[in-house]
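Fold it.
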Amino acid sequence: MINIAVCGANGKMGQEVIKAVRTADDMTLVARIDINNGQFATIKDAKDSVDIDILVDFTQPQAIYENALYCLNNNINMVIGTTGLSDSQIDELKKLSETTNTGCLIAPNFSTGAVLMMKFAQMAAKYFNNAEIIELHHNQKKDAPSGTAVKTAAMMAEVNDNLASGNCAETETIEGARGANSYNNIHIHSVRMPGFMASQEVVFGSNGQTLKIRHDSTDRECYMPGVLLAIRYVSEHKSFVYGLDNIL
């Protein structure tokens, strides 16, 4: 059995992970970690009390980096679903994972449909020289742009070095009107509004045509097969992985 601790256990994603782990035949939940009425308040408290094979983190952007540093420095394998890590922080965690021989899988999105959307966008980026990303989430999401949008843009940039080809010189009369200019001139627009859970649309254009690739999540249950897949992968591979697409 794989001993699982869930950090952020009382959050919406944490509660879904707990339900999924409890229904898995090869896993057992050993710790519910949450600063708000958790079984344990901190990862250290849990580590001192129970044996943890893998910690699944769905906490907050401001907490995840320190959580990851503690786990990797204490040989606790991790599956990270919390977004908000910078590129430099991800690089540091990769180095630490390799140095300590501790498994760490970071996934901006655990939905297989979303991962396919990202892969399809990367494929399309080879054939279009203009693209922008619109991501839409509920108004309680604290980081922007979403980790999924950042990962999508990075994947697209791997195959195309300029995705704003031919655009005229622009002047924003209201700052931010064109969104964030990310990798290789891919503009990302973040919408935060009640009524949405998680959606993303990648828009491609060329003379005479547009292509839109969109994914919508309507229930957090859709992430759970990916979370369980990640847990099983990390239990067998003490390596660093960024993106669920790398293990599908």
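The chain has two domains: 2-106+220-246, 112-217.
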